[in-house]
Amino acid sequence: MHYFLSxxxxxxxxxxxxxxxxxxxxxxTLMTAGLVVLLWGLAGPALSGVFEQAINRVAGF
Length: 61
Known about the structure:
- It is a single chain.
- The longest helix is centred in the middle third of the chain and has 58 residues, at 2-59.
- By secondary structure, this protein is mainly α.
- It has one helix spanning 2-59.
- The mean pLDDT is 82.
């Protein structure tokens, strides 16, 4: 009987650790997406201008 109790406790710990890991990864993913959106909003127009200049120079040859 003692074996089954310790096995149950071990399974609960594994489930808890897996749940915490998933929560952490979701948070990291959301924060990364937020940073990408922020940087894209700030640097998007400048990068677009650089890209258009490069295309115009290549098309000019």
